[in-house]
Design goal:
- The chain contains 15 helices and 10 strands.
- By secondary structure, it is of the alpha+beta class.
- The protein has 2 domains: 7-88 and 109-183, no CATH class; 202-354, no CATH class.
- The strands form 4 sheets. The protein has a 4-stranded antiparallel beta sheet with strand order 1-2-7-4, sandwiched between helices. It has a two-stranded parallel sheet with strand order 3-10. Strands 5-6 form a two-stranded antiparallel ribbon.
- Its cofactor is cob(II)alamin; [4Fe-4S] cluster.
- Residues 185-217 form the 4Fe-4S ferredoxin-type domain.
- This is Epoxyqueuosine reductase.
- One of its GO terms (molecular function) is epoxyqueuosine reductase activity.
Length: 363
Amino acid sequence: MTVAADDAQLAELAATIKTWGRELGFQQVGIADIDLSTHEARLLDWLAGGFHGEMDYMARHGLKRGRPAELLPGTVRVIAARMDYLPPAAAASWSVLNQPELGYVSRYALGRDYHKVLRQRLQRLAERIAAAIGPFGYRVFTDSAPVLEKALAEKAGLGWIGKHSNLLDRRIGSWFFLGEIYVDLPLPTDRPTGAHCGRCTACLDICPTQAIVAPYRVDARRCISYHTIELRGPIPPEFRRAIGNRIYGCDDCQLVCPWNRFAQPSGEPDFRIRHGLDAPRLIELFGWDEAKFLRRTEGSAIRRIGHERWLRNIAVALGNAPRSVAVVTTLQGRMAHPSALVREHVAWALTEQASKSVDTSGL
């Protein structure tokens, strides 16, 4: 900070930052110190167990993930912000999951890519702080660097890390994004809220692939979100049936969480549904060529998986659908696809279809 400030001035600045954050569209802003030693130990244990699968980036930066001052020298505090994303007017999630002719897209990906939205707002917040106090050291993050964002948000009083490993707030549940600003300002910190999962194990019980292997411990190698988003190669056959019609991500652990009964739809225009992806028909999606995929996913987080993995995921969902002439014909249309990855999943899906009795109603 370029100008010395006493405790009262820093407290006033912290309160003002929170007000500015709300004006920029964040529902909550908190401030954390940078002692993440307990969370770092848990991360190292998780990595040692191989639970990160092929997500090598989780271990790539040494200890910087748990030590903010090593990632950005001079950092003494972290401003953590929450932005709710539950899209209004979306088709009911369980209804979509129970209609196998439809594809389920994780609700966070139905609107504009959250990375862009949060990063721009956080940058504006940082610039507003600089305009008020002068130049200071900072860096903005939104799931874009080795940052323990849930741990920092927990320390900043934005909620607690639930048994499913998502951050939870008793007032609004877990349907929100997180972003951070690392700063060199010795701002007063907020108090953690404490955990409120109690004896509930709903998220462990509902997980289709039993990826939550213990409370607060997720094995990504079993997780549907990992398989449909992070994994670049073939989806392990032992998990394909359990994936059902989930073609991008999985929300089951959030859908069943009792705290999410308090969730409210987001008023953020950027998170409104695009291209009807809240309840799309699988056959239609499987017909998208790469050009149409790129058009329909422009500005969306979905684009990151690319057209090849998009078809891979949908092929699995079609294999899990009731047998019909329409589904079989649609799959056969991709049997000669240039990608070996797509062809392998199409072949699996056709084998699954052949093992079922015919649904004469079609899809």
